[in-house]
């Protein structure tokens, strides 16, 4: 599937970023599934998560599932920094070797908005659905374009990166950048040891105490804890570009729906701007996007048509929201999202 | 205080270790506080925690506090690998440059036992008290010498290293050993970058979500999250010998009261061997020695004179059990341990 013809590029051109920096040729890679109907009211936007490309997340799109391409026109915009959209790995020439600029969610969402409006004439989203960084993008969409977003499903995400979450990301960055391939702020070659260490750091944060206690890695065919860590986490980021990972870590760590001209850091105001029907679906045992973050957010959704907190009852930690080959969690998500899509909005 | 005269050395001689390896001259560094009474019934054993020396933990010993040197004879045995007792950093000559052997709690506790019996003629402990790895040692003492231990206070510790805890330690090891100073299984020079990365990894695990949310680092005088991470965690392990840290990580990760000839891996049998009055005092928000571990242990203490689970109500995560300059947590611990010491045993 990984061929140029698998996805399209939206040329956003020369873009002034929130930081004051410019990207002279920002490109948004996207893929669509299903057919846009005449009323253009069957659109689901499904942004990508950390280090992921649409190849990694499109499995959730399936006939009969909540994200059903036979019923909906589903668009996956690849997040900047993921190696398909503009990223350090593909911008060197364009940037004439200048440092890659920091790109915030507030930079990314308007480009996604331009794709939908300019390319497809879409003015309303039936749903914006996202997991992890995708969930943060869903939140940003709902706050930034409240009249356009009918429903938002935030799966293992939050409206801003909590300080605890940021400290987790600091540990990921520290493990990765300890590799000697990190020189003067960027990787000059592939940091194999750093990527492996980053995976080991991720292993404890991404999965729960109970996951390891009950040896749930056996469900996926691993034969020992070390086998699981070695074959799953040591290689989890091995095929990613390390400079891309750093770019997305910045985006994640600095995520906050209120850090824009419209809200000027007033978090309550940003939350109150959201009009969508909101489903907050954290993993019950997620260590970094904790249930408590969503609990604190829920009462701030004062203008939302409806807002529900519905933790995924799973020991799979953060991965409960991207339950590849975990039927129970997948079924839970599909049921809740189907209900959300069936509700008035 | 850090002078040779501050502590004593117990020469354990040539010791056959549980692994089958030998240490030809195992030395136990210890320090005593207070006076052993004639009946020799006022003894508190206070083993050390990860990377710590008695300098780091003796602050809890104070007149009027639970560990009161005016009333008790308190012995701190420095855990092997901490740089004062036998450790990679001081065993190179003795070992003729051979790899440092793995030393388990089951190796360490009998040497501590020899110190108490051979050096002081002590046959009964009023209390064994320990935090973190010290708490694990307290547990091992209670299971190994049930008739000698009247009371055991396990603070942020467990009877065995949970798999989740082990995965955390894997992340610490990965961050540390990514440093290029790690060559063929040992550090050949000081891994400054690795030690810093290890500190950043520790930062998220040691403290809680609520600690960061409420910016409790302000209580200690830090002015920003980055200031806290930089001045506290980036340097937390900077003055430690990295090979020593690896040695103690092995001890911690392989901790299990049942992994010895007496119990042959039968965890329930080992737990049932404990006769002491047991106080399990996890931190309510500890991420790696979780409350749930102690909850699971409590019903297994079937022979204990008494067993109580009493979480420290604190946002200071694992540090709730070593609450340097945190008056509320210190008071909580002192009160509970004083009550334990006052109870029949």
UniProtKB/TrEMBL annotation, chains A, B:
Pfam families with a match to the protein in the record: Abhydrolase_1
InterPro entries: AB_hydrolase_1 (IPR000073), AB_hydrolase_fold (IPR029058), HAT_MetX-like (IPR008220)
Molecular function per GO: acyltransferase activity, transferring groups other than amino-acyl groups
Domain AB hydrolase-1: 61-176
Record Gene3D superfamilies: alpha/beta hydrolase (3.40.50.1820)
Active site: 132, 286, 318
Name the UniProt record assigns to this protein: AB hydrolase-1 domain-containing protein
Organism: Tardiphaga robiniae
């Amino acid at each position: 599937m990984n061929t140029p013809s698998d996805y399209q590029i939206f040329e956003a051109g020369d873009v002034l970023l929130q930081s004051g920096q410019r990207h002279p040729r920002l490109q948004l890679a996207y893929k669509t599934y299903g057919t846009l109907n005449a009323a253009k009211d069957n659109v689901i936007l499904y942004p990508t998560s950390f280090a992921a490309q649409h190849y990694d997340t499109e499995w959730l799109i399936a006939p009969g599932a909540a994200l059903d391409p036979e019923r909906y026109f589903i668009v996956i915009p690849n997040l900047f920094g993921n190696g398909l959209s503009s990223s350090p790995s593909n911008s060197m020439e364009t940037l004439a070797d200048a440092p890659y600029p920091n790109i915030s969610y507030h930079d990314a969402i308007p480009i996604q908005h331009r794709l939908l409006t300019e390319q497809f004439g879409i003015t309303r989203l039936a749903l914006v659905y996202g997991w992890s960084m995708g969930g943060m993008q869903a939140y940003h969409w709902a706050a930034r374009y409240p009249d356009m977003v009918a429903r938002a499903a935030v799966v293992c995400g939050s409206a801003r990166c909590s300080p605890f979450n940021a400290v987790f990301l600091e540990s990921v960055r520290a493990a990765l950048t300890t590799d000697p391939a990190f020189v003067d702020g960027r990787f000059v070659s592939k940091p194999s040891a750093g990527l492996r260490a980053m995976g080991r750091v991720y292993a404890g944060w991404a999965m729960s105490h109970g996951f390891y206690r009950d040896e749930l890695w056996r469900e996926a065919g691993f034969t020992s804890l070390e086998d699981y860590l070695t074959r799953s986490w040591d290689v989890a980021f091995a095929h990613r570009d390390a400079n891309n990972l750093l770019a997305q870590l910045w985006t994640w760590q600095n995520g906050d729906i209120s850090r824009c001209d419209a809200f000027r850091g007033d978090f309550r105001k940003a939350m109150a701007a959201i009009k969508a029907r909101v489903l907050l679906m954290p993993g019950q045992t997620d260590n970094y996007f904790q249930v408590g973050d969503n609990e604190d957010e829920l009462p701030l959704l004062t203008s939302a048509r409806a807002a529900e907190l519905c933790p995924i009852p799973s020991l799979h930690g953060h991965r409960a929201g991207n339950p590849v080959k975990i039927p129970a969690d997948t079924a839970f998500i599909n049921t809740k999202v189907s209900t959300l899509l069936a509700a008035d909005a």
